[in-house]
Amino acid sequence: MRQPYLHEHVTCVAAPATWLSGPSGDLATDPDGLYVEDRRAVSRLAVTVAGHVPVPIGARRDGAAAAEFTAVIRELGDPGPDPTVTLTRRREAGPRGGTETLVLANASHVTLTVAVVVRAATDFARMGAVKDGRTASLSTVELGDSVTSPDGMTVAVDSAPAPDGPGLRWDVTLPPRQQWTARLTFTRSDVDGAAGFDFRSALEVVADDRRLDALVRTGVEDLEALRRTDGPDVYYTAGSPWYLTLFGRDSLWAARLALPMGTEVAAGTLRALARRQGERHDPDTDEEPGKILHEVRPPDASYHLPPVYYGTVDATALWVSTLADAWRWGMPAAEVRELLPNVERALDWLAGHEGFIAYRANGKGLTNHGWKDSGDGVQHADGRIAEGPLALSEVQAYAYRAALDGAALLDAFAGPDAPARPGASAGPDASARPDASARPGASARPGASARPGASARPGASARPGAAHWRAWAADLAERFRKAFWCPGGYPAIALDGTGAQVDSVASNMGHLLGTGLLNPDESRAVADHVAALTSPYGVRTVSPDSAGYNVLSYHLGSVWPHDTAIALLGLVRDGHRTLAAELVRALLAAGERFGFRLPELYGGDAAATAYPASCRPQAWSASTGPALLVALLGLDADVPAGRITLRPLAPSPVGAYRVRGLRIGGADLDVSVTADGVPTVHSGPPGLMAG
Q1: Taking a C-beta distance cutoff of 8 angstroms, is the pair 39, 149 a contact?
Q2: In the predicted structure, residue 195 carries a pLDDT above the cut 80
Q3: What are the domain boundaries of the chain?
């Protein structure tokens, strides 16, 4: 079965709920619906007035959670060409469901006496069945009050005013120049309501290029709508509608790129993932001691994969570096200190691989465990699918950065105030560390995974310290240099199971920039290849010269905004500022094409083309807006060192601009930049020097 398309849908989201419909506002066919916790609460929704189907004439979003649909009833009202009777439907999502407000307006000269009838139904479909196109056999149940599925899912509808019946029917008498309103509230009542999280970001920008304003504003709105809580903590769900849940890689990248909005979400994401950090070896879920998970699903809605699944090779290193970045942006020291045992367990997992950090598909989960996780996402330049176990280039860069970040954390929190170790804050005894086989001189072949049993090293009395992890990182960089660089002067996307280079020119190499893994000459070579991959709308996932290139493939030619943003930040850090400015302009052009709600991915050749099944909004796409501000400002925050560094792109690719509400160290930074790139700090966090 084929996955339903989303590119023409209007989406209203308030995690974990999302509305999906076409421009008419009706819920008619897949994937239309109101979903809560990955189950469809409303599958059909249609309105008639006096038996007539309204003719849609407009639809618009109002922020992330609301939309308005306007239609006319041509058969009613005054004669003549002008519409005089309209039906407006205002829709809003809430954490356990949503509302639909109907406004029937009579601009004619006659009194209307009409029946307004709403037909609503549910099929209780699981999101996976909708995504896979497997809902044809499901029966529907009419919604008029409260209904419950055989497995206990309950959906209720409340109406104000109460219907005149039968069902959701109102007999309406409407004089000229008057309007009638009814409000329907749909609630999934068998799930808990989301705990409140009241903080709203004040981040905003006003630029000569107003596209930047709109992209940042929309991104902030979408990120706030994608937030949900895990006990006392908050995180960004990955994206609507397919991934409206906690994801290791996606939630971490989104929180990291959105640090200009504050550290609260990063801290919550880190703790939510730390509570689920791997404790044992389980081949069915790919769980391993110290490993950070891939995704979590409600047990009654999981599909293909286990409800808690660990099939990701990169989230563990990203977790460490996200903690270090959040610390530098001002995450309270006490909160950072509590997570240090989890840092050590994560580093142990990285070091427990033979040679490079690699993965092998086990046949029960995803084929690929990197961010290009489609089955064909890792290919040789001639189009051959790479055979595992696979060691991805960006994963080695993440691991290198994580080792250095972990060392910095261990150094900073060493001493009498450090937490007692061994012992982890969110798992079993963390004192047993894997035998780190990725040591100087280790084999450069990729390993399948951390070795089973490696975490039980009898007699281990002392944890490796900061110096150990710096030496480990240096050794990894040297081995990477020898093994990954292709004859064409660029890093392979991966090493395959034989140790051979997977030689596609791919956007993965952009993730190496700014990590420190590359020396200056290597960084320039990677920047040149990223430039060659760049389209008018962002960085292509692979080169058009690759045999598997397809502009509308998932990972083989499309553009992903987060992928481009990561490369952009790396270019700024490594000093490739001309190309960085080009990527800023490319992302703004894409934002304009998609109404400034950047989708998960799109085709990015001559025209930015919708990938039809793309999530929108997607958290790491929405976080591109805040990340653009970091790149434009050349911003480096180091609250523990008492320093903020500003080195704006000059000349500015967006003209003059002013950023307010940029959150560092628990306070706001207000800074303006001229078109020539000269910054002025108007106010900032107390005690931090800007330079």
Answers
A1: no
A2: no
A3: 10-188, 276-503
Q: Give the CATH number of domain 10-188; options: 2.40.50.140, 2.70.98.40, 3.40.140.10, 3.30.70.1530.
A: 2.70.98.40
- pLDDT value at residue 629: 98
Output the pLDDT for position 444.
35
pLDDT tens per residue across span 56-67: 999 999 999 999
Residue 114 CA to residue 177 CA, distance in Å, equals 15
Rounded to whole angstroms, the Cα distance separating 241 from 253 reads: 19
Distance (Å, whole) CA 401 – CA 518: 11
Q: Which residues 6+ apart lie within 8 Å of 251 measured at CB?
A: 235, 236, 237, 238, 269, 272, 273, 619
For 326-378, the pLDDT digits (tens) are 999 999 999 999 999 999 999 999 999 999 999 998 878 999 999 999 999 99
CA-to-CA distance for 39 and 27, rounded, in angstroms? 15
Number of neighbours of residue 137 by Cβ within 10 angstroms: 7
Please count the CA atoms within 13 angstroms of the CA of 61 that sit on its side-chain side.
Answer: 23
Question: How many Å apart are CA 618 and CA 599, to the nearest integer?
Answer: 6
| Residue 34 token pair | 């109101």
Q: How far apart are CA 319 and CA 323, in angstroms?
A: 6
Strand-pairing partners, residue 37, are none
Separation between Cα atoms, residue 417 and residue 415, nearest integer Å = 6
Percent of the chain residues topping a pLDDT of 90:
86
Whole-number mean pLDDT of the chain? Answer: 91
Neighbours of 308 (CB within 10 A): 18
State residue 2's pLDDT score.
78
Residue 502 and residue 495 in contact, taking contact as beta carbons nearer than 8 Å? yes
With contact defined as beta carbons under 8 Å apart, do 344 and 419 qualify? no
Give residue 446's pLDDT.
38
What sign does the dihedral 366-370-376-382 (CA atoms) show?
negative
d(CA 630, CA 634): 6
Residues in Cβ contact with 461 at an 8 Å cutoff, skipping those fewer than 6 apart = none
Cβ contacts of 342 within 8 Å, gap of 6 or more: 274, 277, 319, 424, 425, 426, 427, 430
Task: Give the predicted TM-score (pTM) of the model.
Answer: 0.92
Burial class of 679 by CB neighbour count within 10 A (0 to 12, 13 to 18, 19+)? middle
CA distances from 653 to 150, 257, 349, 353 (A): 57, 20, 42, 43
Q: Which residue from 356, 318, 349 is spatially nearest to 432, judged by alpha carbons?
A: 349
Which of 614, 621, 625 lies closest to 661, judged by CA? Answer: 625
**Considering Cα of 219, then 224, then 225, then 230, what sign does the dihedral take?**
positive
Question: Is 343 exposed, middle or buried (CB count within 10 Å of its CB: 0-12, 13-18, 19+)?
Answer: buried
pLDDT of residue 344: 98
Q: What is the CA radius of gyration of the chain?
A: 26
86-95, 98-107, 136-145, 350-359: the lowest-pLDDT one: 136-145
| 457, pLDDT greater than 70 | no
**Average pLDDT of 373-393?**
96
Whether pLDDT at 13 is above 90:
yes
